[in-house]
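Below sits our specimen:

——
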Amino acid sequence: MEVRREREECLWRSLPPRKLIYGRRKTGKTYFVRNYTEWDHYYTVSRDGVVYDEELNELNYDVFYERIRHQTNKKVVIDEFHRLPPKFLTFLQHSSPNWTLVTSTLFLAKKLLSSSSPILGLFQPLRFDIIDPADILRALGSRFSGPELIENAVYLREPLLLNFPLSEPLERRLSLAVPVASALVGEIFLEERREYSRGYHSVLRSIAGGYTRPQKAARFLQGKSFYIHILREMGLIKAVRVHGQKRYLYRHSSPLLDLYYYLSAKYLYEETGTFKKEALRTLLPIHVEWFVEELLSEIHSLEPVKVLNPELDVALARGKRVAVVAEVKWTDSLSSTELRKIEEKLAPFRAKKYLVVKDKSGIASTKLNVLDASDLLALAREHRHC
C-alpha cells in the first residue's frame, strides 16, 4: 500500500535545493526521495562502504568519487551518505546546489549539522518520522471505516506494517510484525553506531511497562539520564511536558515498538515468542489516545502536554495556557452517567473540549464536541500542511 506523505512533500518544496533527509530506519525516506522527487543520479552506500548507482552497479569509493565530482551540474542523491569516509564531508563543501543527502540516523545527523561540521549551513534538514496522522487517515479512508479505520491508522503509521496484507486482521498483522520490530531496533542502533546495551533495553522495556507517572519515572530514571537523552536523540522515545511543572513523561514514539516492549516486559516475549492478545487489548485504547493527541495537535498547531489534576487523556497548550482538552473513550458503549462525569471533569477548563468515541450515535452533549472515526477522517481531509 502507498501512502502520500503530504507533510513531507510540503516541507520538501519549502526548502532550498540542497537538502539533508534524516530519520531512523524504515520511516520511508528512500521511497519518498526515489518516487516523489526529481533526480538524475541516485547512489546508495552499503554498510561496508560499497556504493551502488541507480542501476545497481557496484562502485568502490575512488570510482564513485571520480564520477560524482564531474556531476556537479546534476541532481544527485546520495543515500546513507554517512557511511562514506569522513573526507567526503569536506568534498561536500564544494558540491552542487542540487544535491540531496539521505541518512538513517538522527543522533549522527544532528552532529553533522552542528557548529563543528564542515557542511554546517550548506544542507537544509528535513526529518522523517513515522507517518503523519492526517496522511495515514487520508490514505486508509477508502479502505476502512468506523473504529477499524482508527485502529489500523494507529499502527500503520509505522511504514514497515504496510508490507503486510491489509486483508489480514489487524491482530494477525501485528503478531507478524512484532518480531520484525525487534530486528528494527537492532538496525537503528547499528546505524547510529551504538551498542544496544542492557541499559538501553531496560529503559525501553520499563517505559512500555508503565513507568510513565512522574513519581515512578523519577525513581526509575534516576541515574539513567544518559540513556534517556540518547534514546530521544535517536527518535525512539518522546517526552511530554507535565503542565505547570518542570518534569516530563516519556513514552515510545512508535506504537508498534511500544507493543513489542510491553510484550517483553509483561509476557516475557523475548523468551517465549508468544503474542498475547491481552497486550493489544490493553494498549489499543492508549495508542488511540496518542493518535488523537497528535492529530489534534497538528490541526490546532498546539503543544501536547500532560495534565495530571485531573488526569486528562489529551491536553494541548499554547505556552502556559491549555487551549484544547479531550477524553478518549475507546469502548463499545458509553452510558449517560459516564458522559456526565466527562462533562464535569472537563468543565473547569476554558478550552475547546472534545470527546472521542468509537461511535457517536446516541451520544448527545451540548458541552463537548463529540467525534468518532468519520469526524476524525473529515478533519484529516480538511487539514492541509501547506
